[in-house]
Amino acid sequence: MSDLQTNLAKAQEYLKRWEGQGVLNHINGEAVPAADGSTFETVSPIDLKPLATVARGKEEDIDRAAKAAKAAFPAWAAMPGKERKALLHKVADAIEARAEEIAFTECMDTGQALRFMSKAALRGAANFRFFADQAPTARDGQQLAGPDQLNITTRYPLGPVGIITPWNTPFMLSTWKIAPALAAGCTVVHKPAELSPLTARLLVEIAEEAGLPKGVWNLVNGFGEDAGKALTEHPDIKAIAFVGESQTGSHIMRQGAATLKRVHFELGGKNPVVVFADADLERAADAAVFMIYSLNGERCTSSSRLLVERSIQDEFLGLVAKKAANIKVGHPLDPSTVVGPLIHPTHEEKVLSYMDIAREDGATIAVGGSKVEGLEGCYVAPTLFTNATNDMRIAQEEIFGPVLTAIAFDDEDEALALSNDVVYGLAGYIWTNDLARALRFTEQMEAGMIWVNSENIRHLPSPFGGVKASGIGRDGGDWSFDFYMETKNIAFATKPRNVPKLGG
Ligand code: NAD
Q1: Is the CB of 471 under 6 A from ligand 1?
Q2: Is there a single domain that holds both residue 258 and residue 281?
Q3: Ligand 1 close to Cβ of residue 398 (< 6 A)
Q4: Each residue's pLDDT tens digit, 397-420
Q5: Ligand 1 centroid vs 248 CA: distance in angstroms?
Q6: Whose CA is nearest to atom 43 of ligand 1?
């Protein structure tokens, strides 16, 4: 048997567990169908065949989940940080123990390649361990001495929070948002994306089997317009941590306005990778290729705009084109696959529509530009557009597929202007061996995260998030706790100051 056949056989075994009752919601420690019995099908992008029937939660389900999270909050918030830490490490252990099941299920549900998803569970477990370790000190504050008073700050968990995640790397993103909420002492209602709901269900089960108390983590599947909307409007939910499209972020802000929701948004991007003539071109080409074609290009921090200095344009684009043309597209469970199928036929159609848009706007399709023939799922060939300008739609809009738009620049000022001339500002990548230029450029680049002479490498204590239409707020390190916790200041008088006497 080939590696693919072996992996497929294992995946089929793992998927059997969804036969029968399908993917249920999880409220107050119980696996439950939707209150009104509604369901929907989740389809694999590999062959468009149904993978499982999923409970379609709506307002009533969200209400039950929010009430369960509210009831569980006092005990969870009061649990000593050391105990929460120990429990969350157990969750991490349990995630690692089911790494293969998580990886194979994620590949079948999202179309992401195993070579990247095989690490999803380890990364998810690392998220739990990192935030678990911070739990004992999360409430610690500062002492701020004024002339006649001593201020002491402290933090406490906000309450039940709502977490809404997208379909692209659902397991990793769910752990990234949920682990700090739990470590901070919040309880959670999670609404995963309707297009890839399977691993969110595995995750909540794993957490409860590891000992997480009932009601601390609740899961409601469903669509954005009903379950998602109801979560953002629920009065018992104190904050919404959302990862998804910029436009959905603005809907959520509107929906949450009446209940004054605290919001944290990780949204879309159109991230530039800027390559100067003095850079190490081979490494820069590897990084540019990795950052757009890994994870099927369905990645918020993908380097989807390649800005290249005109003097090296031909040489550099030649390198990128050669690598892009060699990328293996195929079944996600084949260990040699780099690019798998896109999440859904609707998304595939959107990505393919940019091929015509590129032609109409006058760009050149140097590599790819079409669906991959002979494969039945949503397979799009790795694509490189050249001769593009920054005003074209292929340079301005988030395509969210394996599609790279290359634009030439003449000097540093122009490179900076092009970098910043988009509505987004999530990530930026710059390649140069001129240190002073790197310092100047990064100072002015409009992005929440910038990597110099490197692809995106996450360091969990560092801040993650975007500016402009790419987001509000930061995750990572203590930034996550700032979002999930409230800060209180207590001022003690240290001298008997004269209190102003009013009225005698
Ligand atoms: P999406 O905005 O369509 O959906 C995300 C989630 O929001 C889903 O669970 C969906 O059901 C829910 N939702 C939709 N409408 C809602 C509403 N009115 N109220 C409440 N919830 C609602 O995004 P997507 O297509 O699933 O994901 C792709 C997007 O996510 C891309 O734009 C990508 O850049 C972004 N993303 C950003 C980051 C980041 O960290 N910045 C990471 C991954 C993905």
Answers
A1: yes
A2: no
A3: yes
A4: 999 999 999 999 999 999 999 999
A5: 6
A6: 300
Q: What is the CATH number of the domain that holds 480?
A: 3.40.605.10
Residue owning the nearest CA to atom 10 of ligand 1: 224
- The reply to whether 501 falls in a domain is no
**Number of structural domains the chain divides into:** 2
CA of 347 to the centre of ligand 1 (A): 13
- Dihedral sign computed on CA atoms, order 62, 67, 71, 77: positive
225 lines ligand 1 (CB under 6 A): yes
Residue 170 CA to residue 167 CA, distance in Å, equals: 5
Amino acid at 425: G
Q: Which residues are catalytic?
A: 266, 300
- The answer to whether 261 touches 240, Cβ cutoff 8 Å, is yes
Task: Kindly list the distances between the CA atom of residue 486 and the CA atoms of 67, 239, 481, in Å, as whole numbers in the listed order.
Answer: 21, 11, 9
Find out whether the beta carbon of 110 lies less than 6 Å from any atom of ligand 1: no
Same domain as 217, residue 279 = no
Position in ligand 1 atom list of the atom nearest CA 268? 34
Domain encompassing residue 85: 27-40+58-137+150-267+470-488
**Average pLDDT in the chain:** 97
pLDDT tens digit sequence for 254-285: 999 999 999 999 999 999 999 999 999 999 99
162 lines ligand 1 (CB under 6 A): no
CATH number at residue 388: 3.40.309.10
Q: Is the pTM of this model over 0.85?
A: yes
For residue 13, the number of C-alpha atoms closer than 13 Å in the C-beta half-sphere is 8
Q: In a mutational test of the pocket of ligand 1, which residue from 168, 189, 266 has the highest number of ligand atoms less than 8 Å from its CB? A: 168
Is residue 503 assigned to a domain? no
Q: Whose CA is nearest to atom 15 of ligand 1?
A: 224
Give a yes or no: residue 1 inside a domain. Answer: no
| Pair 203, 279 in one domain | no
Are 254 and 301 within one domain? no
- Distance separating alpha carbons of residues 178 and 29, to the nearest angstrom: 16
Q: Is 248 in the pocket of ligand 1 (CB under 6 A)?
A: yes
Report if residue 145 sits inside a domain.
no
Element counts in the chain: helices (H) and strands (E) = 17, 22
- How many Å separate Cα 66 from the centre of its chain? 23
Query: Tens of pLDDT along 144-201?
Result: 999 999 999 999 999 999 999 999 999 999 999 999 999 999 999 999 999 999 999 9
